[in-house]
Structure formats: C-alpha cells, structure tokens
Amino acid sequence: TSLGVNEPDFSAMDNDGLGNGRLWRLIFGFVFSLSVNRCAGYILKDCRISNGNAICSANKLRAVPRGIPASVKTVDLAVNKIAAIRVGDFVNHTVLAQLDLKRNNISRIEKGAFAALRSLQKLNLNNNRLAQLGDFFEGLSNLTELRLTSNSITTVIPSSLKPLMNLTVLDLSFNKLRHLTNVHYAIQHLPNLRYLFIKKIDITIFRSWELTNITVGPAYLDLSQNNIDVFAISADVFQNLTWLNIGGAPRKRKLICEIGEGTGLKRLTTLDIGGLHLERKDAAALFRSVNFSLSTLRMNAMKRNLRELLNMSCTIPTLTQLQLRGNRLQLLDSTLLRLCSSVTELDVANNRMQNIFSDAFRALQGLKSLTLSQNRLSSVPPAVRNLTKLLELDLSFNNISSLGCDDFAELRKLRVLGLYRNYISTINLCVFKDLTNLQVLKLQTNRITKLNGVFTRYLPNLRQLKLDENRITTIEKGAFEGLRSLQNLSMQRNELQKLESGSFVGLTMLTDILLPSNQIEETEITAGVFNDLINLRRLNLLDNRIKYRSSSALPEAPFSRLSQLETLAMAGQHGRGRSQLPRNFLQGLSNLLIFDMRNAQIVSLHQDTFKHTPSLQKLDISSNELTDISPRMFDPIHNLQSLYISRTSLRSLDFLKEANLTKLEFLQARRNQYSVITVEQMASLPSLVYLDLQGNGFLCDCDNSWFLQWMNKTPTQVYDAYNFVCNYPLNLKGMKLLDLDIQSCSVDVGFIYYVSTTCAILLFQLTAFTYHFLRWQLAYAYHLLLARLYERKYRDRQPNCLYDAFVSFNAHDEDWVYRELLPKLEEEQGWRLCLHHRDFEPGKPIMDNITEAIYASRKTICVISRKYLESEWCSREIQVAGFRLFDEHKDVLILVFLEDIPIWELSPYYRMRKMVNKRTFLSWPRAAQCTELFWEKLRQALQSTDNADGELLLLTVEDKG
Length: 961
Prior knowledge:
The chain is an alpha/beta fold.
C-alpha cells in the first residue's frame, strides 16, 4: 500500500516531560494512524507475516495463536507443541488456502474445528499423534490435498472424509492402518481422488476386491515399504491407475502376484518394484498385465534375478525408461541389456561399477539419457562414444581424473554433460571439440587449476557453465571467447585472485555470473574487466577481498558499461582494515534494482553513492560499522522499497526524517542501538508494511509511549514486538517493552476534545443564562467589590465628622434637592450638609471624594429615584454607605424615596432591597398631604443615636417591614 502523509514541522516542539511537543506528537500519532488505514494494526507475538503468509513455525507454541490476520492465505504452524485443534482456532480465516500443522503433538481435533475454512485447499497434519481419523473435516469442501503422514492412525470412521468431495491428494503413509479395509473407508467417498500414498501402513496383503465401490480410483498409488507378501488384483478397481510403487527397501521374502486375466493395470505407465524378491512366474504375471502400457520401470536394489527380470521386462515394447540403481553391478557387460532396445533413458547410478564393456550399450541405439553417476569409473567409458543420439550424460560422483580428446567423440547431439564431483585437474583444448550442441556443462567440485584455453573454441551453443569449487586462480584474457551463447557462468569457491582485462570478452549474451568466495581484490575489478558483459543482469562478488580506503571518486568506474545490471551482490568482503566505497563506484548502473553490501566493514557512505542508481529498490548495508548516514544519500533512490540496516553502529533512525523514502515497504534494523522510536521517524515512512527491530535495547519510559501506542494501531507489522526488551533504566532492564505501563504518559486526545467542547458549551449556556436572569446582580456584585475595596482603604483613616449628612442624589433630582431639601435642612433646621458639587475637592479621584465625604459625615441621605438606581456613581455612594452601616453597626443611612418603586425592581440591588425590607424609610410621594411630618421625621433621623440594631419606628411614614 502506498500512502502519502505530509511531514509536519516538529522543530519547535518541547521535548521536556509531557510538554507541548509531546502532546503534539501524540495528537499527530493518533491522526497518522487514522490516515494510514482505518483497520487496526497488529503485532504478532509468535508469528510474522510475509507476502500474505503467516509464519508461526518453530516457536514452541502449545495452542493456535490468536490475532493472526484474517486476510492471510497461508498459515505455517509447523514444528510446535500444539496438542489440540479447537473450535474457534480458525473461525475468522475464511480465505485461508494453505494450513501447515506438521510436526506438532496434535492428538485431538474437535468436531467443527475446520468448519470456517471453506477456501482451504491444502492441509498438512504430518508427524502428529492422531490415533483415529474422525469426523473433524466438516466444512472443507474445497480441500484438494490432505497429508496425514507419520501419525498413529489405526482406525478410520467410514464417514470421516465424506465432506472432502474435491480431494485429489491423500497421504496416509507411515501409520498403523494394517488392514486394507481401513483404506477403503477413507477413500470410498472421494470421487476426485487421484493421488493415494499409503507407504508403510503395515499391510502384508493387498487384495483389490477389498477396495470395491470406488467409483473412479486413483491414478497414482504408492504402496512402497509395506512388506507385502501377496499382491492380488482380481477386480478392475484400478482402471485409471498410471503410477504404481510396490517396492521399497530390499527384502528376503517373496512377493506373490495374483493378477487375473483381463483385469488390473491396463493403463499403468510407471512401475516401481525396487527391492522385491520376485519369482519368474510372479514377475511374468506382473509384466504381462502392463505389457502394452508400461513406459517407466524402476528395479532398484534388486539383489536376485536381475538379469532374468530384465530379459522379461525389456520385451515390453512400450518400455522407454529403465532405472537400475543400487544393484551392485560392478561390471556392465554386453549381455545385461541386450534385449532393452526400446529404452531411451537408462539410469545405472550407485552400482559401484568400475568397468563398462565397450559394447555394453550396443543394443540401446536409441538411448537419449544415460546416468552413470555415483560409481567408481576412473575414466569416461568408451561405450558411450557410439551413442550418437545421446542428449544427456551424467558421469558425476566418479573417480575420473583426466579427459581424453576422444572421450566424447561422435556425441554431437549431446546437450547436458555432468562431470562434477570427480578428480579432473586438467582439461585439454580438444576434449569438447565434438560437442557442438552442448548447452549445459557441469564441472564443479574438481581439481581444475587452469582453463588452458579450453573455452576459446568449440561449444558455440553452451548456455550454462559451472566451474564451482575448483582451484582456478586466474581468468586469462579471452578465456571464454568461444562461448558466444553462454548465459550463466558460475565460479564459486575457487581461488581467483586475478582477473585480466578482457577476461570476459565474447560473453555478450551472459546474464548471470557468480564469483563469490574467491580472493578477488579491488585492483582486479578495474575498468575493462566487465566491459564486455553488456547484457549482464546479475553479478555476484560475495565474500571476496574488495576494499577501498577512500570515498574519493575512481578514475574510471568498474561497472560503467553494465547498464542492464539489476543485481549487484558484494557482501562479506574480508581482509584487514576498514573500508569505504568510492562515490562513483556504482556509476553506469542506471537499472540496478538490488545492491547487497552487508558485512563489508564499511565505515561511511558518501551522500552521492547512489547518484547513478535511480531504479534501486532493495538496499542491504547491514553488519557494517556505519555510525552516521546522510539523509541526502537517499534522494536519488526515491523508489527504494526494502532497506536493511541491521548490526550497524547507528544510534538513531533520525536520518529517516529527512530521507525521501515514501515508498519504503520493508525496513530491517536488527541489533542496533536504537532506544527510542519517534513519531517523526515513522511518519516519514507512510508505505511501511514490515518493520523488524529485533534485538535493540529500548528505553522504557514515556519517550517510547508513542511507539507502544503506534504498534497497536498501525497496519505495519512490527516483527517480534512481543520480545522487545528494556535496556534502560537499569531497574527495568530485561523487562518486556510491551509490559511497560504508559497510562500516566498518554494523553487521550479524543477525551480532551470531548471535555473541552463540553466545557465550552456549558460555559456559553451559563453565560447566556446569567446575562438574562442575573445581569443586575452581577453588576451590583461588581460595584460591591469596588466599594468594599475602597471602604477597607479608608476605614482606618476616618476624619472627624465635618458634616451632619452627606447627600447622595442623581443630577436629575437636583431640582428637588435644591428647592426642597436644602432650604429645610440647612436654612430652617440648621444642619450642615455635604454636596458633591459644592464640597468635593477638585482634582481628586471621584471615588476618593465620595468615600471621604461619607466617612466625614454622621449620616448619609440617599435621595432614591429610578434615575438614581441607573447611575453608576450613585450606586457606589449607597454601597459605601451600606458598608459603613453594616460593617460598623452604626445608624448612618437614611433612605428617601422620591418615587414609588416596587420591591421587585430593587432585586439587582440586593443589599438595598434587604435594607428596605428590614428598616424604615421615608417616602416623599406618600407625604404629599403632610410634608411637615416628613421633614420632622427626617430631622429626628438626623438626631438619632448610632444604634444600628434598633428599629426607628418613629420615623416611619409607611412601614414596609
């Protein structure tokens, strides 16, 4: 999957604690995990996923592991300790095609355990402990291959295999079925069965009538290693049988063949009777039943009557392939094969032959393939020279030490010649002069030291040449000049030290050359050595001594002419000292796809190393001493899909943040020193499918909290994550990384969003509610606070009473004050009043003037009207007076209402409403008929004592308390 994720700027992030940087990383990790794939990621404890296959083998599992992705097509659970297969183990794997359970301890399979595997085609249960073939294959209607080799099966329930209507391959070998009826029960419901393996099931008698009711019957039947004493065919149940093996290990007891006339093996083409002891009459009956169909006969390890059996079998006119391995034919004379004129393929390997008569193959004039391997021949037998139609000749694993010019004379049609595993040290130029059609020559594992120009002529059609494991030290100029058609050259594990300029001249068709495990040094791969290999696709130089001391550019790049090269393998360069790679080493390799440079003791790579390889897809630089990698090195190889950087000296993957690796799918970084994996590193790899960090020592604290969360969310498979261990801090060393509790580290972004949004909505609703219903109370509270602050400021600085009363009024009511109040109180009654327009100190803050005036007066007269209630300064005056009243417990406040104001209109002024409800007040509108009483009550109020707790009933014009 290729997914694009833009990399954000993390440069300003805070890295201390769980600050803003950490929060943003967690938020980005959450968003990143959603942007990559909506499916949850997975980390498998005991399996790894590779190319859609789940590989869980050899992990000491005792049960089928949970969490294997349902999308995999193959599951390998071989070589574990699973004892039972239970219902639910594979309930989600409806697309699974192959299931391998071999080499476990399975003794029980629950009914319905495979019911969900409707797409399964291959099931391997070999080497387990099943004792019975029961009804546990329900649902496997598409199964085509079932293997049950090496269990302990003794009984078969008749309906056990009935659901397997499409089964074509059944292997019950190496069980203890003992009776053929058990086999009958197993196959009677399998109309499509074609391959039946019942090797060594401990049957001693085979009677075909015991397999009646089989509709079609198998085409391939293996009964080998069963020690059968009686082989009887009386019913025509094998009408489609083409391949039959009733042989096996050599045995002394005779096999009795009972084959009825007109029945049996009319279509059999391949018969293996190796190791059997057959008398003449039994062999005659057997060969008679296949007289007009048999083409391949194997009589290996026949210690008795071999000549007699050959005389009978070679009269079958259709016989073309004859295998006689392991018969101890130390001498092959002219009489043994005299009747085998129709044979075209003869295999007499592993017979300890030392000599072959020159006319031993005289009767086999049509022979096309001859295998003489694993004998004791000291030279090429002259008998092969007359086989003019021979296409393949195998002389491997003999004692041949030299080759003569006439050894292969007249073999002009020969295409494949095998001479490996001999003692050949020298090859003369004339040896292959007649092999003009030879295509494959195998000379590996001999003692050849020099080529002596043997490949400069002849062999014009040779395509494959194997010279592995010889002692060749030098490839001379033009050594392969005559091999114009050669495509594959292999010279592994020689002693090559010198490659002369022009060593490969003439090999213009060569596509693959293998030169690993030699002693080639960097001075031997100079420009000109490989220039002639213009069609080369794969070059292998593993395990040589190619080392450079500097990254400086070479005068001429060694591979500059190899524009078609796709794979360059140079891993394992050994020798003294460290190495570098010249910056133009890969110049000319514009189509290079794979570059392997692991374990070459490289200490650095120049940022221009891959400048000339824009098509590179796989890069392996593991097991080198790299301490730093420049991100710019990856700029030219933006198509890179696989990167291997295991066992280096890198301490961090930070280079990934700036590297252009958006198409990277596979990253292997085992056994390095990576302690923390960050969101920035993983965000730079949006297409990553497989991540291998096995063997690193991780830091187990909040720095890796994001990585732990990411592993559980990402679709990237993190291989072996369950075995990641802590290396720091020391008190947690050895603990599994996945066991780290990161609850205190993580921030639930979704929960934060939820709480923030909820609080914002509630705050908005509260604000709206408060404004609508409590705006006046809030305004009053605000002014109350200010008044309280001013009151505290001036309480300890109270001046002496300079006035009898401070008059608080609104400018709209000043006419009443000047016309009615002042004349009565000052002129008639003689009180000294404080008025703001007259007595406030100019230039002084208004609030200071108000507070000082109130505390400098014995009383405060508030002239209240609706305009008064709306005035900010009037509200503050009454508030300061109210504080003095309630905080000093003095009767200092006189309320005079110029208008009738209902109590509910005073609600925003909570303290005023409280005073109106508890205390007396004077109302001017209600005193319209008796104003003198009003003024008298006001005078008494001015004269009253400072007892704030008493009720002034005498002043009441109208009592509302």
